C-alpha cells in the first residue's frame, strides 16, 4: 500500500469521525432547545402567580421530557455505545442541565431527592455504564447541585408569594443534601467548585427561615400545614 | 509622499502603481474606522450620562422635566449615530461593526432605560431602529429642507440590541434598590416581574446567542437575585404590620401600604 | 552619550524612583497603623455602652489625627510635589480611609457632612491640586461613601442600644447625600462600585426607619427630640 | 564523574522528592476525610434539635481529634522536620480546616477563643517552629476567621431555634475578635482577604441582635439568662 | 409585543443566523477540499521532475478552479449579499488560500503578478464590494504574500532541479512585490505579520542568487536565457 | 433509601474511580521511563559515529519495546476496556511518543512509513477500537508527525556526518508524507497544529538538499549510491 | 440639566450645591481625559505611518528626500503632542498619563527610528524632550508671534521612552532583514552591534524597570536573535567566496564585498 | 490573657516575619544588581571583539562573585537556617540566575559542566540542605538550562566572529547535557518547560555545525585545533 493509498484510507476514518460528531452536535442542539423549553416552563414557579400552578407546570415538563427521551434515543443511534466517553464532552453540558430539570420536577412534585435511577428513567437512559448510554455519576451530582441553587431562589420567592411553609421544608431538604455531599470525597474539579457553592445556598435558606421565625411566621406556617 | 519617491525610481512599474491604489484604499478604510471609533466613544459617554440622569428620577419631584431632559440628551446621541450612519453610507455595516458596537450597545441601554421608566415596558428592536432614520445629511439644519430628502437609516443588530438589554438589567436593579430606599414599594415588585421576564427570555435564548451574552447572563442572574431579595424583604417586613400599632403606620406612612401610589 | 551611558542614566532614574516608592511605602504603613487606631477608637460607638462616650471618643480621635498630620507631613517630603499622581496609588487607599475617618468624626460631632476643605484641614493637606499635596475629589467622595456604609451600621446598632431618634436623623442625612451623589456622572471605576453600595445603605436605613415606624417608635423618637 | 553519572545521581534526588510528596498526599487525604467527619458532627449544632446536644457533639468531635493526632503523627514521619515549608502547601488547606474545627469545638464548649497553643495541643503538633511540625500563625488565624463566619451562621440559626441570648453573646465575642484583628498588620494575602470577610460577619450578627432588640426579644433573652 | 414574544422573535433571528452559518461552513469545507487538491497539483512543481510539466499542472489546476467557481456560486446563495462582512470570518481563510493558488498558477503560467481582478475572475467573484460577493483587498494581499513564500521555496528547489535562471527571475519579481508592499500602511494584524514574513522570503531568494553568483552560475543562467 | 445511604453508596463509585486513575498514573509513569530510554538509544543516530550503528540501535530499541508491551499489558488490566476514552488523557501523551518511537525505528530499519497496524503490533495493542485497548488514529498521526520533525534533524546531521545521500532519500519520503497528510481533512485541533509544523520540516530538508546540489554534493551522493 | 431640577426641589440644600460643583469638576476631568485619548490615537496612527514610510528607505534611491518627508510627518505628530501639552498645561502630567502613554510610546519609536537611520545612534531622552518645546499656543501661526511667547513643554517619561525604544528594536530587526534582502551586508552588522548594545542595556536594567518593559524583553531577545542569525548567515556564506570564481563575484556584485558602500 | 493581649502578642510574630521578609528583599535586590553586572560582563563574549577577551571577562566575573558571596553571607544572617523553604520564593529567581552565571563562567573557562558542588562553592553556599543555606537541585538545573540557551547563541556568534571550532565543541557539550537531562524524570513544572526548550538549542547548534560542515569549515576548524 502506498503512502497515498494509506492516507486515503485513513481519511475515511477521519471523515466518519467528523460525520459522527456532526450528527451528535445536531441532536444535542435539539436537546438543548427542549431543555430550554422545560426550563422556561419550570421557571414560572418563581412567579407569585406560579405557585398554585406547580402541578400543571410539572405535568407540562413531564410531557416535554417525552421529547427529550425521543431525542436521546436518536442520539444513541449516532455512535457505537462503547465510545460513550469518546464523545462525552458533546452532551455532558446538556445532560447536566437535564439532570437538574429532572431533579427539579421531582422535587416540585414530591419534595424528595431524585435518585440517579429516576433521572435515568426520566431521560430514558441507563444508570450503569455497561448497559448502554448512561448518566455519569458526576453529571447526576452536578444536576443536583444546580437544583440546590434553584431551590434557594425558590425559598426567597415563596415568601414573596406569601407561602411561608415551603422555605422551611426546603431548608430541611437542603441540609440533608449538604450532609450527603459531605460524605463524598470530591476531586479538585468543576464539581467540587459547584459543591462549594452549596454552602451559600444553605446559608441563604437559613436566613429566610430566620426571617420567618423572628416574625413568628414560621410557627404560623407550621400551624397552617398542621391543619 | 514616499510612494512618489518609489514611483520615480521605477516609473514603469505596474506593480507600484497598483500598490499606490491599494495604499489609498487601505488608508481610507483605516481612517474611516478611526473616525467611527471616536464617534462611538462619544456615543458611549453621552449614553452613560443619560443613564446617570435617569437614575435621578427617583429623587426629583418633576419626573417629566427630567425625562424630557433625557430625551434631549438622547437626541444628541442620536445625531452622533447619524454621523456613524453617514460614515457607513453605502458600506456593509458589518465591515466596521467592531468600531462602533460598544457605543451602540450603550445607546440601546440608555434608550431602553428611558423607555422603561416612561412606559414600564421593553422597547423593541424595531422601535429603536425606527428612531434611527435620518433625513438628509444635516437633519437638524431645517433651512436646508429643500435639499435631498434621501433617508439615511442605521440598523442596530439583534446582537447589539440583546447586549444592550442585558446591561439594562443592571440599571434596573439599581433603580429597584433606590426605589426601596426612597420608600417606593410598588416599583420593586413591578421591576422584579419585568426583570424575571427578561431573565427568562435570555435563558430561553440560552447559548444560541452571541458569546458575550452568555458572559453577561451571570451578572443578569445576580441582578435578578438582588431584586427578588428586595421584594422578599418588603414582603417579610410587610407581614409584621398588622400586629403592631397598625393605625400609626397608616397615618404616618400611608404610601407604604397603598401600593397604587408608588412613584410611577 | 553612548548607549551604555544612556542606560546607566536611565537605570539611575529607575533606581531613584524605586527608592522614592520604598520611602513612600514605609510612611504609608505608619499612616495605615494610625488609621487603624483611629478606627478602633471610633468603633466603640457601635457598642451599646459607647453611645454616651461619643464626644470623648471624638476627642480621642482628634488627637490621633495630629499623628496623622505629622505622618503626612513626612510623606510630603518623600517626592516632588508636582508628581502627586505618579505615586497616587501608594496612598490612595489610606487617604480614602482617612477621609472616611475625618467624615465620621465630624458627623459624630455635628451630624453634618464634612466638606472637602475640612477633611483637608484635618489631614493637614490642600484641597486644590496646584497648592501641593491635596485630597483628590474622588478620594474625598470615596471616604464619604465609606462613612455612609458605617452610618447604616450605626443606625442598626442605635436601635439595639435603644436610641430610636438617631436612625431617623441618619436617614435624613443619608438621603441628602444620596441626592448629592446622583448628580455625579461616574466612570466604571471603584468609586462607581462604592456608590452602588450607597443604595444598599439607604435601603438598610429605610428599613430601620420602617421598623421603628410600624412600632410607633419613630414618633416616640421625634417627640423625644422635639423636647 | 561524567555528565551521565552526574545526572543519574541527581535523578535519585528527584525520585526521593516525588516519593515524599506522594506519601504526604496520601496521609493528607485521610486527614481531609477525618476533618469532614468532624465537620458533619459539629454541623448538627445548626439544627433546632442540635442545640441541646452541643456537649455531646463536642465530646464526639474530641474523640475524632484523636484520629487526627494519629494521622498527623504519621504525616510527621514522611519528611525531615526542617523541610516543613518545602511541603507546606500540601497540608496548609487541611490544617486551616482543622484549626477552624478546633476553634469551633472550643467555642461551643466554653464560648472562648481558642489559643494557638490549644489548637496545637488538640492537633498534637507544636506552636513554635523549631520544636517540630507546627501550626503556622497564618494558618491559625485563617482557622479562627473560618469560625467567625460559622458563628454568624450560628447566630442566625440560634434565633430560629428560639435561643435569643446566644446571638448576643456571639455578637460580643465577634466584636472582640474584630478588635483583635484590627491590631494586626496583615499583608495583602489570602488571609487579608479572609479578614475582609469578617466585617460582613460582624454586620450580620449585629443585624440579628437588632432584630431581637426591636422586637423586645433581646431583653427577654437577658432576663432569661439573668435568672 | 410582550417580552416573551420579543425574545421569541430574537431567538428566531439567532436560529436563522446559526443556520446560515452552518450552511456556509459546509460549503466552505468543500471549498477547502478543492483548495487542497489544487495545492497538491501545484506542489509537484517543487519536484525535480515537475519542472517540465508546469503547463500541464497549471491546466489541471485551471480545471479545478471550475469546481471552485461552482462552490463559490453555491456559497453566494447562502446569505444576503450585503452581509458579506457579517460572515467574512467563515471564508476568509479559504479565500486567501484560493487567492494564493490563483496567484501561483498565474505566476507559473506567465511569471507575472496576478491582479485582483484576475483573481476575482478565476474565482468567479467581484472586485468591488457593492457588486456582490467580492475579494477583500486584504485577502488578495494575503494570497499574494503566501505565494511569495511559495516562490522562495521554488527558488531553492529550482536550483536543486538544475534550473539556475528561474531563481533570478523570481528574485526580480519578488523585489518588485516587496517595493509594492512597502507602500502600504498596515495595521498590527495578521496581514502585517505575513508581510513581515516577506522580508525573509526576499532574504532567502537573495541568498540563492548570491550562491549562484559566487559560483558563476547566475551568469550562465543569464546567458542561457539571453539566447 | 435515605439521602445519607444514597450518598454513602455513591461515594463508593467515586473512590473506585480515583483508585483506577491512581493505578493508571503509576503504570503510565513506568511507560514514560521506558519511552525515554528508547529515545536515548535512538538519539545516537544523530551523532557522526552513530550512523554505522543504526541496525544495532534499532535492535536495542526493539528489545526495549518488549518492556513497553509488558507495561501496556499491565495498563490494560487497570480499567474496563470499554472505558478507554474515559481515561484516554492519562496515556495519550506517552502513546503518541511511543508511536513516534515505533515509526522512527521502522524508518531507520527500512526507510518506509510504519502503518498503524505495525505500530499497534510493536506496542502490543489493537488497531480497531472494538477489539480492545487500541491506538487512536489521531495518536498514530501525531507520532508520525513527531518523526517527521526528527527526520529533518536527521537530514541535517547526516550531512555533518558526511552522508550526502540520506537527506535526498529523507526529502523524498517527507514529500510523500506531506502529500499524504494533504489528503486529510483535519479539524482545528492539536494535530492540525502539529501538521502545520510539517511544512517547516519539508522546507528545512529541501534546503539541505539545495545546499548539497549547489555544491555538487548531491550528484556525488547519487553516484555513490549508484555503485 | 438634572441638577437644576434637584436644586429646585431642595433649594436650601448645601449638600446639593457642593455636589453640583463636584459634578462639574468630574465632568471636566473626564472630558479632558477623553480628548487626550483621541489625540493619543492620532499620534499613534501617524507615528506608525511614519515608521512604515521609513522602512521604504532601503528601496528608494533618494533616501534624503524620504527622510525629510518623515521629518514633515513627525512634525505633524509633534503638533499633536503640542495639543496634548496644551491640554496638560498646569496639570500634573501623571494624572492623565494612561490616556496618552500609547501614543507617546509610538512617537518615541518613530522618532528614534528616524534618528537611527539618519545618525546610526540612539536618540536620547533629552534630545526627544528638547524637541517637544512649544512656543505659544499656536506655534505654527507665525503672524501671532507677538503674542505670549510662553514656552509650553512636554516631558516624555523615562518609562515611556524605554517602552518606545523597546519597540524600536522590532523595527530595527525588520530593517536588518530587509537590508540583507536588498544585498546590503554592511547594515546588518551595524544593526547587530547596535541591537546588542540596547539588549545589554535592557538586561542591565533588568526587572528594575516598569513591568511592561520586562514583558517586551522577550520580544527584544527574539529580535536580537534574528539579527544575529542574519549576520551569521552572511559570514558563513562569505566564507565560501575565496574558493569559487572569486573574480566573478567582484565584478558582478562588488557592493557585497565592499562593506563601506552599504546604504547608510 | 484577653483577646486583645493575645492579638497584640501575635502581632509581634507578624511584624517579625514582615521585618525578616523586608530584610531579605533588600539583600536580594543587591544580589540581583550584582547578578546583572556579572551578566553584562559575560554578555560581551557575544561581541566579535569579545572572543579574545574571554579569560579576562571570566576573571572579572569571578571578582564580582566575591561580592555575591558577601551578599549571600548577609542574606544568611536574615533568617533562621531551617526556614529556608519558608522564604525560598524570595531568592529562587536570583539563585537560578546566579547558578546560570556560575555555569557560564565555568564553561567559558574550561568548557566543562559545572557541578552543583562547584556552583555552591562559587556562591558560598551548601549543597546539602542540612548543612545550611543551600542550592536547591531544581535551581541548579534551571541555571544549567539557561546556560544551554546562552551557548546556542554563543555558537552562532562564534561563527560570526570567525571562530569555527567553538560551535563544534559546544555541540558535543550540549548533546551530552541533553542525554543527561533525559535521565531525569521531571514533573510538569516550570523546570520541565525549560527543559523542553533545550531541544531547540540542540537543533540550533546542530544546524550551525551543519553549515560549517557543508562548507568544509568544520574540517578546517578541526585541523586548526589539531595544531
Ligand atoms: Mn450600565
Ligand atoms: Mn513597532
Automatic annotation (TrEMBL), chains A, C, D, E, F, H:
- Write out the residues that bind Mg(2+): 150
> What family name appears in the similarity comment?
Belongs to the translin family.
Q: Name one Pfam family in it.
A: Translin
Any single GO CC term annotated in Swiss-Prot or TrEMBL for this entry: cytoplasm
- Lineage of this protein's species? Eukaryota, Metazoa, Chordata, Craniata, Vertebrata
List this protein's GO terms for biological process. RNA metabolic process
Q: Which top-level group of life is the source organism from? A: Eukaryota
- Quaternary structure per UniProt? Ring-shaped heterooctamer of six TSN and two TSNAX subunits, DNA/RNA binding occurs inside the ring.
What is the recorded function of this protein according to its Swiss-Prot or TrEMBL entry?
Answer: DNA-binding protein that specifically recognizes consensus sequences at the breakpoint junctions in chromosomal translocations, mostly involving immunoglobulin (Ig)/T-cell receptor gene segments. Seems to recognize single-stranded DNA ends generated by staggered breaks occurring at recombination hot spots. Exhibits both single-stranded and double-stranded endoribonuclease activity. May act as an activator of RNA-induced silencing complex (RISC) by facilitating endonucleolytic cleavage of the siRNA passenger strand.
Keyword annotations for this protein, in alphabetical order, are: Cytoplasm, DNA-binding, Endonuclease, Hydrolase, Magnesium, Metal-binding, Nuclease, Nucleus, RNA-binding
| Molecular function via GO | endonuclease activity; hydrolase activity; metal ion binding; RNA binding; sequence-specific DNA binding; single-stranded DNA binding
| Official protein name in the record | Translin
Where it sits in the cell: the answer is: Cytoplasm; Nucleus
Amino acid at each position: 500500500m502506498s503512502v497515498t493509498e494509506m492516507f486515503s484510507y485513513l481519511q475515511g476514518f477521519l471523515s466518519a469521525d467528523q460525520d459522527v460528531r456532526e450528527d451528535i452536535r445536531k441532536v444535542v442542539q435539539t436537546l438543548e432547545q427542549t431543555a430550554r423549553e422545560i426550563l422556561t416552563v419550570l421557571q414560572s414557579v418563581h412567579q407569585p402567580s406560579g405557585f398554585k400552578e406547580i402541578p400543571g407546570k410539572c405535568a407540562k415538563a413531564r410531557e416535554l421530557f417525552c421529547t427529550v427521551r425521543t431525542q436521546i434515543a436518536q442520539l444513541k443511534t449516532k455512535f457505537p455505545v462503547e465510545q460513550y466517553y469518546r464523545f462525552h464532552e458533546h452532551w455532558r453540558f446538556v445532560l447536566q442541565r437535564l439532570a437538574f430539570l429532572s431533579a427539579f420536577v421531582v422535587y416540585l412534585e414530591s419534595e424528595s431527592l431524585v435518585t440517579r435511577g429516576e433521572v435515568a428513567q426520566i431521560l430514558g437512559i441507563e444508570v450503569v455504564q455497561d448497559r448502554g448510554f448512561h448518566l455519569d455519576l458526576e453529571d447526576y451530582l452536578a444536576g443536583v447541585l444546580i437544583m440546590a441553587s434553584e431551590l434557594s431562589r425558590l425559598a426567597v420567592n415563596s415568601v414573596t408569594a406569601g407561602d411561608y411553609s415551603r422555605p422551611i421544608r426546603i431548608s430541611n431538604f437542603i441540609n440533608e443534601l449538604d450532609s450527603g455531599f459531605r460524605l463524598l470525597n470530591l476531586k479538585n474539579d468543576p464539581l467540587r467548585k459547584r459543591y462549594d457553592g452549596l454552602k451559600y445556598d444553605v446559608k441563604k435558606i437559613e436566613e429566610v427561615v430566620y426571617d420567618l421565625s423572628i416574625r413568628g411566621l414560621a410557627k404560623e406556617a407550621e400551624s397552617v400545614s398542621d391543619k | 509622499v514616499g510612494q512618489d519617491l518609489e514611483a520615480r525610481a521605477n516609473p514603469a512599474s505596474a506593480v507600484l502603481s497598483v500598490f499606490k491604489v491599494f495604499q489609498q484604499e487601505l488608508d481610507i478604510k483605516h481612517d474611516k474606522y478611526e473616525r467611527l471609533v471616536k464617534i462611538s466613544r462619544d456615543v458611549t459617554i453621552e449614553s452613560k450620562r443619560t443613564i446617570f440622569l435617569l437614575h435621578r428620577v427617583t429623587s426629583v419631584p418633576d419626573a417629566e422635566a427630567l425625562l424630557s431632559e433625557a430625551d434631549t440628551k438622547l437626541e444628541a446621541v442620536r445625531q452622533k449615530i447619524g454621523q456613524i450612519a453617514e460614515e457607513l453610507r453605502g458600506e456593509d455595516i458589518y465591515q466596521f461593526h467592531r468600531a462602533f458596537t460598544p457605543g451602540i450597545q450603550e445607546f440601546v441601554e440608555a434608550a431602553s432605560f428611558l423607555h422603561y421608566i416612561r412606559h414600564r415596558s421593553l422597547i423593541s428592536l424595531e422601535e429603536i431602529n425606527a428612531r434611527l432614520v435620518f433625513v438628509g445629511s444635516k437633519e437638524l439644519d431645517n433651512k436646508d429642507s429643500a435639499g435631498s430628502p434621501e433617508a439615511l437609516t442605521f440598523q442596530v443588530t439583534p446582537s447589539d440590541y440583546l447586549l444592550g438589554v442585558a446591561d439594562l438589567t443592571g440599571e434596573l436593579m439599581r433603580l429597584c434598590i433606590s426605589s426601596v430606599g426612597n420608600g417606593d414599594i410598588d416599583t420593586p415588585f413591578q421591576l422584579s416581574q419585568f426583570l424575571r421576564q427578561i431573565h427568562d427570555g435570555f435563558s430561553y435564548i440560552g447559548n444560541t446567542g452571541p458569546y458575550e451574552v452568555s458572559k453577561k447572563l451571570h451578572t443578569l442572574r445576580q441582578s435578578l437575585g438582588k431584586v427578588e431579595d428586595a421584594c422578599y424583604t418588603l414582603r417579610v417586613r410587610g407581614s409584621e404590620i398588622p400586629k403592631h400599632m397598625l393605625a400609626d403606620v397608616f397615618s404616618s406612612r400611608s404610601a407604604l401600604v397603598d401600593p397604587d401610589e408608588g412613584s410611577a
